[in-house]
Amino acid sequence: MSETPGTFAPRSDGQPLEAQTSLRPVVLEHSRVPERMSADKVRCEACPVLCQISPGKLGACDRYGNVDGQLARLDTLALVAKPGTDLVAWAAAAEKHWDGSLVGGDAPVFVSGVGSGTTYPDYKPAPFIVSSRHEGIDMVTVVTEGIFSYCSFKVKIDTDRYLGPEQATVRHQGEAVGHVSTIEYGSQFLALGGVHHLTGGSKREGRIACEMMMALGNRSPVELQIEGGASVVVCANEPPVVDGVEEKRMRVGCGSAAIGIFAPQWFGHADEVVVIDDHITGVLSEHQAGKFLDMAPSGIRLRGRKSTPGRYFQVANPGSGWGGTDITDPLCIVEGWDARHGARPGLRLLMVSTTGEDSAWFVLDDALVPRPAEMPAEVRRVVERIGENCEPSLASVLYVAGAGGSLRAGVTDNPVRLTRSIKSLLVNVTCGGAPVYVWPGGGITVMVDVAKMPAMSFGSVPTPAIVSPIEFTMRLSDYRALGGHMDRVRRLEDVLASIAYRVVEPAAGNPWPFDALREKTP
């Protein structure tokens, strides 16, 4: 039965129209004025923006354009090469319409989601559903670029410097884009992006957050300001820059751990060692390591809250000085010396930071006042060894995305089967061919190191949302069982013969995506 705008057709239960109008929403679809569009424009439906693109122009996302009156994905599809593949020989064979016979019959490339395009809204099958063979087994990889509003980045910054208080707002170009998270043994974590910043604030906040997220994912440097703290420049797998200074070393451990590691090497060369740390400062003679070495007490009285023997909390405020504290003079944390408990003239004292970058040597005079002195070579070697054991300071960027929504409909007509198949390890999930960690619990929440993904894997749409590659790989028989779009499965060689593509080397250490299913039973 036809309806006029703003009215309803009677329900079959016979209730009067007045009773029904309070129960049913007003349907406005038929009252909308049809969209007008110039004949030479094409409309892109790859995201909710629905750009109308003029000839020779790009859409708002810079991913799709109007090429001779046809909507075209302008980036080429990225194929990840199998480690050990002779790419030159493969490329020559591919030009002759590769028949799958190269490299023992196994596919020498993996079709990634980078450059694959999007089928938003996802009631349509994914852009590429590709069949290939691996060790004699028929495999299927479902490939797409997902549009993610529910996504964020977890950034690990190797530094002892004080970046800011936990929960402090992180800003980029003046807009809130995340917050400070916890410290994990020499590294400070930031949580950046997320749907709250993309959609829950002002239009500018969403745009700036999206731009920042895309830059992080594409391994570009991003400057961040932390309220009540530092200015930080982070870039995946590059040293962080804190307040204009590039970090060099990640600490070997906390002050207590450093005491435990190097105590035997200091024994006999120093009468007391204090390793200064914002969190746990270590004192060698009191520490259990010193007790096992039968070290005599030094009578040192240290500022802060004593935890267990040789371990002190809160000796100073956090900052960018020694050991992540705010001090530049190490003696300021020493409250005094007690002759009744071992303090004596000539006592040799080493004060050092957790990275070995700061160190000083003192000898107590007759009044038990520590006086600077030249550090013995034996002690200097141990200080240098602290630095030797510090790993290079880096910023690590991990992308986290929830893929439990309509994206699954591009894979199967019964989305929960995909979720269950992933949890039962029948489906291997990758992002640009890179391995991901799938979080336990409901949905498909993945986490991946962006440094393991192909360069420039991330894009965006102005809704705003992040566009990122995702692939689901499984046996052909399993794809059929979970209700996959079998009529859209295409052979790898047919796909490659029909599109432009580029081949990229996998990141060092990345497993071959098909290998994850080697030991799984159908």
Question: Which short descriptors sum up this protein?
Answer:
522 residues, alpha+beta, eleven-stranded antiparallel sheet, seven-stranded mixed sheet, 34 strands, 30% strand, elongated, disordered N terminus
Structure description:
The strands form seven sheets. An eleven-stranded antiparallel β-sheet has the order 16-15-14-13-10-11-12-9-26-30-29. Strands 7, 8, 27, 28, 31, 32 and 33 form a seven-stranded mixed β-sheet that branches. A hairpin with a 2-residue loop joins strand 15 (241-242) and strand 16 (245-246). The chain is of the alpha+beta class. Helix 5 (255-266) packs across helix 7 (377-388). The chain contains ten helices and 34 strands.
| Backbone structural class | alpha+beta
Mean pLDDT: 87
Regions with pLDDT < 50 over 5+ consecutive residues?
A: 1-34
Oligomer: single chain
- Total number of strands: 34
Helix content: 10-25%
The outline comes out as elongated
- Rg to the nearest angstrom? 31 Å
Number of helices: 10
User: What portion of residues belong to β-strands?
Assistant: 25-35%
What distance separates the N and C termini? 49 Å
Major sheet characteristics: 11 strands, antiparallel
Biggest β-sheet: strands ordered side by side in the sheet = 16-15-14-13-10-11-12-9-26-30-29
